[in-house]
Amino acid sequence: MRNYSNHSENAVEVDSVSKRFHTKDRDSIFSRPGNNPEITILDNVSFSVKKGEMFGVIGRNGIGKTTLLRMIAGIYKPDSGQINTYGSMVPLLSLGTGFNPELSARDNVIFYGKILGFSHKEITGMLGEIIEFAELEKFKDTKLKKFSTGMAMRLAFATAIQINPDIILIDEILTVGDQLFQKKSYDTFMKFKEAKKTIVFVTHDLNSVNSLCDKAILLEGGKIASDGQPSKVVNDYLGMLDAEKT
Amino acid sequence: MIASHIWENRSLIRTFAINDLVIRYKGSLLGALWSFLEPILMLGILYLIFSHVFKSDIENYPLYLLLGIIMWNFFTRSTSMGLGSILARTGIVNQAYFPRDVLPISACVTACIMLGVEFVIFFGFVIGFQFVPSYTILILPALVALLFCMTLGMSFILSIAYVKFRDVQNVWAIVTYAGFFLSPVIYDISIFPDNISQILLLNPMAQFLDMAHGVALYGQLPSVFALAYTGIISIGVLIVGYIIFKHYEFKIVEEL
């Protein structure tokens, strides 16, 4: 549910959310039916993210971090529980994959902006700044299929940033582009923090969780295994990985 | 309810539909010219074959044939584009939430724009044949609107089903192929004995084509029965399709 009221001091509220997936699909009627066990990815998970907070989500691969972000973004629905978000939101989940290779950078940005809920007028008004931020002025009429992966990701990132949402959901993308662009993205994140924007951040880069986030959670076995100060949560995670090795 | 929903999301639908059309002719030298050239040539070939090779005693047969082909093209195009509409957009569907029903709706709108182009060409042929249609032709847009409702409803169901079962595409290709011959596109339903034509007219597309031919070429108003029959089926399919779509729209995204 997306609300635009500002009464809550929270930007994201996740309340007793559970999500289950089937582990396999039946391929065809010729394959053995067998059983199709369900696994619980998230089991009664609750937390909230305050406005202006940078919130890290860490955990091992396949533990449900992306599923959680997708549910916050409204792409998946929780099987039970509720998620509320307050303010405009841009998910950066898999950068640039939604672009159409046959359309120009310009047309793709307009399309992407509309998908994110902006009007034609709003998005064309921001177009110049988006292309400029992405440093792709020379290529604005070039078809996306001629773009490198990094360029396409830069374009998607620039669009999301220039749209200036209240909440950004990020799935492992701080490594977008070359060093110069990374520096610029990092600076932009800091600006976002100063502007009291909310960022929910899924990553394996524990250093950036330590240095950037105000709070963090560790997901393990469908539950929140640790939460609070990023340094503490990161330590718990490292401890958990160590314990598993021995 | 669906109409107001379409209106609210008109900007997004327009973008999807225009992109579809733009992409269709991208990379070709003649570009958008193909949107006229392709149907002109297609209809020209069909006209040559069926008016010179297979002669028919249907009055104004070339126009009869063209109108039937155009209406049938719309039916197959909108449903087959609607069928793939979610799967073809996996990248963007997985990346952000937007009203999912925009996908099949814009596929049908794209087909509708192509239908409009073909109607322009059809009226070129009408003028070329110095044919003067009766006032009843004014009913044709209403028939198209009703047909749009039916194809949209089918597209809602097909788009969801196709994500889960890829067989749907094969099945639908066969259904539309058979449907072409079971509907009065190249022949008139009256060539069959009464009992058989009654069975053929259970097919709503047969009714649509029969009515379209009647109003456009022969000055015949549709029968109350035919209108009621296609009306109930079209609106029914639309409502049922929308309900099914709404029920599965979130579950199906997890299958992408």
Task: Describe how the helices and strands are arranged.
The complex is a heterodimer of chains A (246) and B (256).
Chain A: E1 2-3, E2 10-22, E3 38-50, E4 54-59, H1 65-73, E5 80-86, E6 89-92, H2 105-115, H3 120-133, H4 149-162, E7 167-171, H5 179-194, E8 198-202, H6 206-212, E9 215-220, E10 223-228, H7 230-245
Parallel strand pairs in A: 1-5, 4-8, 4-9, 6-7, 7-8
Antiparallel strand pairs in A: 2-3, 2-5, 9-10
Helix pairs in contact in A: 2-3, 2-4, 3-4
Chain B: H1 2-8, H2 10-24, H3 34-53, H4 61-83, H5 90-93, H6 102-128, H7 140-164, H8 167-182, H9 194-200, H10 204-217, H11 224-253
Helix pairs in contact in B: 2-6, 3-4, 3-6, 4-6, 4-7, 4-8, 4-10, 6-7, 7-11, 10-11
How would you characterize this protein structure?
The complex is a heterodimer of chains A (246) and B (256). Chain A is α/β, with parallel strands linked by helices. Chain A has two domains: 1-26 and 35-88 and 167-246, Rossmann fold; 100-164. Chain A is built from seven helices and ten strands. In chain A, the strands form two sheets. Chain A has a six-stranded mixed β-sheet, with helices on both faces. In chain A, β7 (167-171), α5 and β8 (198-202) form a beta-alpha-beta unit. In chain A, α3 crosses α4 (149-162). The longest helix of chain A has 16 residues, at 179-194. With 256 residues, chain B is mainly alpha-helical. Chain B has one domain (2-253). Helices cover 73% and strands 0% of the residues of chain B. Chain B has eleven helices and no strands. Chain B has helices spanning 2-8, 10-24, 34-53, 61-83, 90-93, 102-128, 140-164, 167-182, 194-200, 204-217, 224-253. Chain B is globular and about 55 Å long.
